[in-house]
Design brief:
This protein is an alpha/beta fold. Strands 1, 2, 3, 4, 5, 6, 7, 10, 11 and 12 form a ten-stranded mixed beta sheet that branches. Strands 8-9 form a two-stranded antiparallel sheet. α7 runs parallel beside α9 and α8 packs antiparallel against α9. The radius of gyration is 19 Å and the shape is globular. It starts with 6 loop residues before the first strand and ends with a helix.
Length: 307
């Protein structure tokens, strides 16, 4: 077996060709010697595909006819990688930029029972400030606690370790293992699909690992327009309903319901307090649409069992 087996790097674009090309150029500078690339354009309505064909013509491109969302778009790439015989694929956001040795350091941590590996992630605007250093799961509420977020890097963040949650910002995916779980749940259009996959991996007895000496810098929430952009707020709210409803039996269903209701009210009040009525409206619509989606799914499943 090669010391550096081929790894497919998958980048998904949606109407951000300039940032995506900047990301790919950064990825090409990584020192891992046996990397391949796949670019997926997720139904962009601008000139993204034409721009890629003129600026990075050697990068294989799959142009989807419509925006499938992150989970479906990522699965297109992961299944492609599996069909092509890759053992591992690096799935990375188009607004994330690795250090030169990131993939090499991730590769060193590969083990047969590790499903997902992630680098330590920093804010692009503050290169020494941590954005993500692994997630812990609250045993009762299933909430993710992002370790290190907002803190300056230091000695306490220098040890690689197994974690409960990893984020889809950058994942080195063990394809044969994760394929058994059907990759991402495509009911999630955007957000929470990574937490769902993390949880399903752990329930299957697989490990998730944060690699502390593999480093990535992230332009946070570029694709969705910013932290409090209505589109982002809406999708987070909608996906949260699906996630907690799906997995509530793992924690405490009653406690989760009470906590989520309190959290939703608190979030709405925070938006209204700063006069962000568009975000408040989007958040409320997301919660309602998420609940309707869950109920429709339950009705569909009930009818299917009755046939």
């Amino acid at each position: 077996m090669s010391d550096h087996p081929p790894i497919l790097i998958i980048v998904i674009n949606w109407q951000q060709p300039l940032i995506t090309v900047e990301c790919i150029n950064s990825l090409q500078r990584m020192d891992y010697p046996n990397k391949r690339f796949l670019l997926i354009d997720n139904g962009s309505e601008d000139n993204s595909s034409e721009y890629f064909q003129s600026t990075i013509p050697r990068i294989p491109l799959i142009a989807m006819p419509e925006n499938l969302g992150f989970a479906k778009g990522a699965n297109v790439g992961l299944r492609y990688a599996l069909q092509k015989g890759f053992e591992h694929a690096l799935l990375i956001n188009n607004d994330a930029f690795p250090k030169k040795d990131m993939l090499t350091r991730l590769h060193r941590e590969i083990r047969p029972d590790i499903a997902l590996l992630s680098p330590k992630i920093y804010y692009k605007s503050e290169p020494d400030r941590i954005w993500f250093a692994g997630g812990e799961r609250h045993p009762t509420l299933l909430e993710v606690r992002n370790r290190g977020q907002g803190e300056m890097d230091g000695p306490q963040w220098q040890t690689s370790r197994d974690v409960d949650y990893l984020l889809g910002t950058c994942l080195l995916v063990n394809l044969p293992l994760v394929a058994k779980l059907s990759f991402f749940d495509e009911r999630y259009f955007m957000y929470y699909e990574d937490l769902d996959l993390s949880l399903r991996c752990q329930l299957a007895g697989l490990r998730l690992r944060l690699v502390s000496d593999a480093h990535l810098h992230h332009r946070v929430s570029v694709s969705s327009g910013g932290e409090d952009a209505p589109a982002r707020v809406y999708m987070i709210a909608k996906s949260s309903i699906l996630f907690f409803h799906t997995h509530a039996s793992i924690g405490n269903r009653h406690a989760i319901l009470v906590f989520r209701a309190f959290s939703a009210v608190k979030r709405l009040i925070s938006f209204l307090a700063i006069g962000n009525h568009k975000a408040a409206s989007a958040y409320l619509r997301g919660l309602l649409d998420g609940w309707h989606t869950v109920k429709s799914r339950q009705a569909h499943d009930h009818n299917a069992k009755s046939i």
